[in-house]
Design goal:
Structural class: alpha/beta
Helix content: 40-55%
Number of strands: 7
CATH architecture: 3-Layer(aba) Sandwich
Order of helices and strands: EHEHEHEHEHEHHHE
Radius of gyration: 17 Å
Distance between the termini: 39 Å
């Protein structure tokens, strides 16, 4: 069996307190990585949760942050690089939504969902790329998308549109920064039996039937998504750039509602 060793690697991960992120944090920690953990949760709640996941205090630094505040996000990124100049992997994992039918979603709520799932990721990229370019680091930025970026669904128009934008943005950045040795990839889960995916699956019968019909009757486990991230963070993925890695049981292969 191939063993992935990330000892000595410092990884910054946003949206790190969620149901899928729990398994990402656990696996990255088990592989030896030092983690800079960013999430909206207050520090005391985050530390309690990380302790319940059995993540040692010396294995992470926590920052409480609203990612849609681009100035504060840039400050956290800059401070993290000052403390750990060798950061070469960043995971833009933050995202998610509940059901939001277009007709009943206000303009402000639509923009809020889109801003969180797309524009906040653009701000993350801008701050991280600036550090890597200044330090001449051959970095790797990995975003979390969703198969709904390519398979439209009802009641999640802002979220699906944001994820479609994120995937195209990632490919554009992979091209634009390739000459600097910076890579950008995306992991695109299917319907995961955790987090906001679980909420939508349970609340929308049509969506639930669709998921079970097109994905071999299976739903992704959060552990499988975490495994995909560990792989992309490892030297095994060193020649992968500008790709959408779809861990979705095949649910995104040309299917439509």
């Amino acid at each position: 069996m191939i063993q992935i060793d990330l000892t000595g690697q410092v990884i910054l991960i946003t949206g790190a307190m969620g149901a899928i992120a729990e398994h990402m944090v656990k696996r990255l920690n088990a592989a030896g990585a030092m983690l800079i953990v960013v999430d909206l949760k207050p520090p005391n709640e985050a530390h309690e949760l990380l302790a319940s996941w059995k993540i040692p205090d010396e294995s992470f630094i926590y920052h409480s942050l609203d990612l849609t505040d681009s100035a504060k996000l840039a400050q956290v990124v800059n401070n993290s690089f000052e403390r750990f100049p060798n950061i070469d992997t960043v995971l833009g994992h933050a995202g998610g939504c509940g059901l939001h039918p277009f007709a009943s979603t206000s303009e402000s709520d639509f923009e809020r969902v889109f801003r969180f799932n797309f524009l906040a990721q653009v701000s993350l990229a801008r701050a991280v790329f600036a550090q890597w370019m200044k330090r001449k680091t051959r970095g790797h930025l990995i975003f979390t998308s969703s198969y709904v970026a390519r398979v439209p669904h009802t009641k999640i128009s802002a979220y699906a549109s944001a994820k479609a934008a994120l995937e195209n943005f990632a490919r554009c950045m992979a091209l634009e920064y390739a000459s600097s040795g910076i890579r950008v990839n995306v992991i695109s889960p299917g319907n995961v039996a955790a987090g906001s995916s679980l909420k939508v699956f349970e609340e929308d019968a049509a969506y639930r039937d669709f998921v079970l019909r097109v994905s071999l009757g299976q739903r992704n486990s959060p552990e499988s998504i975490a495994d995909a991230f560990v792989f992309l963070c490892s030297p095994l993925a060193r020649e992968i750039n500008g790709q959408i890695l779809s861990a979705d049981y095949g649910g995104g292969i040309g299917n439509r509602l």
